[in-house]
Design goal:
The complex is a heterodimer of chains A (543) and B (189).
Chain A lengths: L1 E2 L25 E2 L6 E4 L9 E2 L6 E2 L4 E4 L8 E2 L4 E10 L7 E9 L18 H9 L13 H4 L10 E6 L8 H24 L3 E7 L3 H14 L3 E6 L8 H9 L14 E5 H13 L5 E8 L5 E6 L4 H7 L9 E4 L6 E2 L13 E5 L18 H5 L6 H9 L3 H6 L10 H5 L6 H55 L2 H22 L10 H27 L1
Parallel strand pairs in A: 1-12, 2-15, 10-11, 10-13, 11-12, 14-18
Antiparallel strand pairs in A: 3-9, 4-6, 5-8, 6-7, 8-9, 14-15, 16-17, 16-18
Chain B lengths: L1 H24 L6 H9 L13 H9 L12 H12 L17 E5 L9 H5 L5 E2 L7 E2 L19 E5 L19 H7 L1
Antiparallel strand pairs in B: 1-4, 2-3
Helix pairs in contact in B: 2-3
The chains are: A alpha/beta (543), B mainly alpha (189).
Chain lengths: 543, 189
């Protein structure tokens, strides 16, 4: 283990006030099991999982409640033992504020675990390991929530040689990864070893920003202790160097192609918290049941809290001593990329790394939007080298085609451009609008193409059936015209002949083939009958 | 003089052969314009344009028999794209052919359905599943919302349900900011 000597040139970015010290003074604290847990089924990117339980079922901690459905999907487990009290739509932490399917659990407070065992990843079959990981519910905990088992089985042609562990945590306010690295560095390093072995990678880089010296020291010590040959790269504190592509460039000097994935250049990136949950799964059989979340901003005891998934934000705030007066809302995620929660009753999900109780002082209402003066300050800070001022024009005027031509899809929505804009234009909101609009158009196009194919197939089928019918009719008429009558006559003739032959063959006689004794008896009876008819009158006269 | 004539005749022959060859070699199957127009049309196959489907309407536009403003599901954006493609001025939607509606899918009330298969025969994209005297149901993912199944149903058991917004199809809104009313604030003070 050593410190990475060279950090490659930092890309563009911004350095907003960090606000990290508020929440790093206390160690990670556990939140008590709440009275109610609400588990959204969609806590990851991909398909809705299939529910396996019904209302009234009692479940154990770590029991599978909904299994992964399709390729891109993740499972949902019971975070504690209790009873399923509802499976319905509830408001989830999402910028739309719309409800989605959730399983509601009433904990029994006993925390009884389902049977769970450690697995030896070295001796077990890789396919079997990935199958188990698929049902473990582990997703990327950095915020993207992409199912981890898929990242461990990349489809690219290039073998993965480099593992990058992301501990940069570049957004202001958020400190959950920092505290996790300080307190549980060994588990992270063991998880990284498992991931490296599953990927078949040969080297590992751990990227940590230089504002987290304690975390970097803990990680270094943990690597040394377990003899893990990873290189810790101390990257300069600059938002958004925690973005996977930015961090990969900082640590390896390689640029991920815009239209590809990092695996195309042999690199795979995992968040440190994800590595820790992979370790918990393999070493203890523990599925995704809890996570660490930073509760900060205008609360009494800002800090990091380990809570069961499904714990409501209200309960988290209570654990942090409650919010102080003047709180005007709650932001999930950081101030740069986060969004205002629709309500504080929403549950904590796998994606929730931070909740900030905001005040007008911390986050003043947005200033009035002024016209763009084309100063290009946004272009100077854009970490993915786009032309935000051009994208703004095209997005604002709904010219999506042109916006896509200017690589709108490469925008990572980091918000640097909005942060520096002297005209206070909410640039990222325009890009988000344009991006979701273009995704909707793409979907509509796919649906239209599918409808066209189905319509074509239907018309072809109708045409084929018509032809088949015409063919059958033609065959029938052809038969009637040429040999139809002759056939019929021949058939009638044949039937008549058959009947005749039958008649001749069967001559009903029941006195044939009788034994001589029976024949003699019949003859005797006949003779008696003859005598009786001739003698009867005589006997009458005699008497 | 003779040389000039020969040169011209030679050139004519050479170019003629080249053109004749390329017209055979690079012959385009089908009408590319019809396909381009068809690609813009929304493929609901609803027939509101007066033609029995999107392809026939595309053919009619290409032949100059139909106007570009007869497709209500395509709406104004569709007309604009057609106008761009054909190099004509966009015009407002012809109200004779109907108004644009929000995207809906058909829904069969299974209590009322008698299993007559008339809707199955009417569906242009085979999005209805069922058999004679058996329950019919709509495959929602394939339904284009063309409403062609409504008319043939003898018991009126099919209704159109507009697609609700959910987490899966939610879109970020166009940024709009409230203009603060200073007068109101003053009046309150």
């Amino acid at each position: 283990m050593n410190i990475l000597a060279k950090i490659f040139n930092a890309s563009n970015g911004v350095h907003p006030p960090e606000h990290k010290l508020e929440s790093t003074s206390l160690p990670i604290q556990k939140v008590a099991v709440p009275e109610r847990l609400v588990l959204p089924l969609r806590q990851h990117i991909g398909n809705m999982p299939k529910v396996l339980v019904k209302v009234g079922d009692s479940v154990l901690k770590g029991q599978l409640l909904a299994e992964a459905n399709g390729t891109v999907s993740a499972a949902v487990h019971a975070p504690t033992s209790g009873t399923v009290v509802a499976i319905d739509e509830q408001v989830i932490p999402h910028p739309s504020g719309l409800p989605d399917m959730c399983i509601t659990l009433r904990p029994d407070g006993q925390e009884r675990w389902v049977a769970h065992d450690a697995m030896d990843y070295r001796s077990m079959d890789r396919v079997e390991l990935l199958r188990r990981l698929r049902q473990s519910g582990i997703v990327g905990l950095g915020g993207a929530t992409f199912p981890t088992h898929l990242k461990l089985s990349p489809k690219g042609t290039h073998p993965v040689v480099t593992l990058v562990l992301n501990g940069a945590e570049c957004e202001p306010f958020i400190t959950c990864d920092d505290l996790l690295m300080r307190e549980r560095a060994e588990e992270i390093v063991l998880g990284a070893q498992i991931i490296q072995s599953l990927l078949g990678a040969v080297e590992c880089f751990i990227g940590i920003e230089d504002n987290k010296p304690e975390a970097a020291a803990a990680m270094k010590a943990a690597c040394e202790k377990s003899g893990f040959a990873a290189e810790v790269g101390i990257v300069p504190t600059l938002y958004p160097s925690g973005d996977a592509r930015q961090l990969i460039r900082l640590l390896t000097g390689k640029e991920v192609p815009a239209d590809g994935r990092s695996t195309d250049i042999g690199i795979q990136c995992f968040n440190v918290a994800t590595a820790q949950s992979v370790y918990r799964f393999f070493a203890h059989g523990e599925t995704a049941v809890s996570r660490i979340v930073t509760i900060t901003g205008n609360v009494a005891r800002p800090g990091n809290y380990e809570a069961l998934l499904g714990t409501s934000v209200d309960d988290l705030l209570k654990a942090a001593g409650g919010d102080l007066p003047n709180t005007d809302g709650y932001i999930m995620g950081g101030p740069m990329m986060g969004f205002t929660l629709p309500s504080s009753a929403v549950p904590m999900t796998k994606a929730m790394n931070c909740v900030i109780a905001s005040t007008p002082g911390l986050f003043p209402p947005p200033a009035m939007e002024m016209p763009c003066i084309r100063c290009a300050a946004c272009a100077d800070v854009c970490p993915v080298s786009l032309q935000p001022q051009e994208l703004y024009w095209f997005s604002k005027s709904n010219n999506l085609e042109k916006a896509l031509e200017y690589n709108l899809q490469d925008c990572i929505e980091c918000g640097c451009c909005t942060y520096v804009c002297p005209s206070h234009i909410p640039l990222v909101q325009y890009y988000r609008y344009a991006k979701s609009e273009s995704i909707a158009q793409e979907r509509a196009q796919t649906a239209a193409d599918q409808a066209r194919v189905r319509n074509d197939n239907r018309l072809a089928r109708i045409e084929r059936e018509k032809q088949e019918r015409a063919q059958r009719n033609a065959l029938r008429t052809a038969k009637a015209d040429t040999g139809g009558d002759a056939d019929k006559q021949a058939a009638i003739q044949a039937a008549m002949e058959r009947a005749k032959a039958q008649k001749e063959g069967v001559t009903p006689q029941n006195t044939e083939n009788l034994s001589p004794a029976v024949q003699a008896e019949i003859a005797g009876i006949d003779a008696l009958r003859g005598d009786m008819t001739s003698t009867a009158p005589t006997t009458e006269t005699n008497s | 003089m003779l040389t000039a004539i020969l040169v011209m005749v030679g050139l004519g022959l050479a170019l003629g052969i080249a053109l004749g060859y390329s017209s055979i070699k690079f012959k385009v199957e089908g009408d590319p314009l019809v396909d381009k127009i068809d690609a813009i049309l929304p493929q609901t196959q609803c027939g509101q344009c007066g033609y029995p489907g999107c392809k026939p309407y595309a053919t009619a536009i290409a032949n100059g028999e139909a106007d570009i403003n007869q497709c209500p599901p395509g709406g104004e954006p569709g007309i604009k794209l057609l106008a761009d493609l054909l190099g004509v001025e966009p015009k407002p939607l012809n109200a004779e052919h109907g108004e644009p509606k929000p995207k809906s899918v058909a829904f069969i009330d299974e209590q009322t359905c008698i299993g007559c298969t008339l809707c199955i025969q009417a569906c242009p994209v085979d999005a209805i599943l069922g058999a004679a005297k058996q329950m019919h149901t709509i495959i929602a993912a394939e339904c284009t919302g063309c409403e062609l199944c409504l008319a043939p149903c003898p018991v009126d058991c099919i209704t159109m349900i507009p697609l609700a917004e959910d987490i899966g199809n939610w879109k970020w809104r166009y940024p709009v900011f409230e203009i603060k009313s200073e007068i109101k604030a003053e009046a309150r003070a």
